[in-house]
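Example S7 (structure tokens).
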């Protein structure tokens, strides 16, 4: 089929292509399409002239308007830092109870603290601060070292078993691995510990009495004679059901046999004093039922 031929129905010339009797018309591009193509090219040329656009060897064309988005971002960040520095300095200088009484400061704490927790604490304690195996919950009232403001701030500052020179040290002995108790004695002690928490281990009174003796000889020096824990040592309360590693037969056997040594980083060199205070306020609010 010749290109010069015209379609008898539309009058358009054909392209010369034919498929099973179907011919392709050589129609013009709609004017609207040409309009937008031209406008787009003109806009691109104008943009190239006015804005940074073309990369060069060591730099790029700056454009007639001289707009630099990197500098704009730096200026905005600097302005935000300056604004933040005003209230952050106030938070760093005030005790936590004074901060809680200041509505404006607490508005900043409420905005910043959840992000601080998410970035630095949630990986271990969970996004809801409910903890998990090996990581204590922060939403209950079971504190290893104490839940008052100063204690929480100090724990955040120095960590637990961390390289910080003032760190808190806490370690449970490996009674089975180090040969202080045999497997049978460990199971008896585990039954007694479960009874302290009000759990029914199915142990006989005689077995629990033997467990109490083992507890007094091996555990009471850290956990207290009544098993309620000693916060000065970071020894947990065994009379509640807030278990860090679990309260099942298997978990307790593993804990007593192999010991435990938790770890928390020291945040003194990672977070500012104001950031640690905001975290402390946020953590205590979680223990009290969450931010208002």
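Recovered sequence:
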């Amino acid at each position: 089929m010749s290109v010069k031929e015209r379609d008898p129905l539309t009058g358009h010339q054909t392209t010369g292509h034919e498929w099973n009797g179907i011919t392709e018309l050589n129609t013009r591009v709609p004017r609207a399409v040409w309009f937008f193509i031209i406008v787009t090219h003109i806009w691109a040329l104008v943009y190239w002239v006015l804005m940074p656009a073309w990369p060069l060897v060591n730099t790029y064309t700056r454009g007639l308007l001289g707009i630099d988005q990197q500098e704009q971002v730096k200026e905005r960040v600097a302005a935000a830092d300056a604004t933040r520095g005003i209230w952050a300095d106030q938070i760093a200088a005030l005790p936590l109870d004074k901060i809680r009484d200041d509505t404006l400061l607490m508005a900043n704490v409420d905005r910043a603290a959840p992000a601080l927790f998410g970035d630095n604490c949630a990986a271990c304690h969970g996004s809801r601060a409910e903890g998990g195996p090996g990581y204590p919950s922060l939403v209950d009232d079971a504190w290893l070292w104490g839940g008052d403001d100063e204690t929480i701030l100090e724990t955040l500052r120095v960590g637990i078993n961390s390289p910080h020179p003032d760190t808190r040290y806490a370690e449970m002995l490996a009674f089975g691995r180090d040969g202080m108790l045999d497997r049978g004695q460990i199971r008896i002690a585990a039954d007694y510990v479960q009874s302290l928490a009000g759990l029914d281990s199915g142990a006989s009174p005689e077995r629990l009495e033997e467990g109490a003796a083992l507890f007094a000889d091996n555990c009471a020096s850290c956990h207290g004679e009544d098993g309620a824990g000693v916060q000065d040592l970071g020894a947990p309360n065994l009379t509640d059901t807030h278990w860090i590693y679990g309260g099942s037969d298997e978990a307790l056997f593993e804990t007593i046999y192999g010991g435990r040594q938790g770890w928390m980083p020291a945040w003194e060199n990672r977070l500012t004093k104001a950031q640690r205070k905001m975290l402390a306020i946020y953590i205590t609010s979680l223990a009290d039922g969450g931010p208002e």
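Notes on this example. The mean pLDDT is 91.
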